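Q&A log
Question type: sequence-to-structure
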Amino acid sequence: MATTSPATSPIGRDTLRIDGPRKVTGLAQYTSDFNFPGMLYAVPVEATIANGKLVALDTAAAEKMPGVRAVYHRENIGKISRARIALGGVGTKPWRAAQAEAALTSKPANDATFRQAAEAALQGAKAQSENRFKIELAKRCLTHALRTAAAS
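Response status: OK
Response body:
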């Protein structure tokens, strides 16, 4: 680990900021200051209630609004580019579910994909006499966790 000697440490002393003068004089430019021909803007819209369940999504009215080019939501946003999954509480120690990660990569974020990933994660799991329920429980928990992660 690199250490800084007290003589060269910026802590407790004035530090010259090269962007300071431009910011305090109003001359600094930010990304919102630039406009390009054909530039589009994204406007995220969140739920207006704290705790609820989305049962249907009708984007027709939003898509017809002037200037709207696209309405993105969970079902049309694209594919999962990367996933990292570890399972805990179903064995003696947590383990990484590489098969589930592979089942998710480059796939759409939907329930069918999540169920396939859960099946892949638990493929080959061997139940003992008193814990057979844990395999199905783990599949359901993983599917629910993926659904929750995709919705956030």
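Response note: The radius of gyration is 24 Å.
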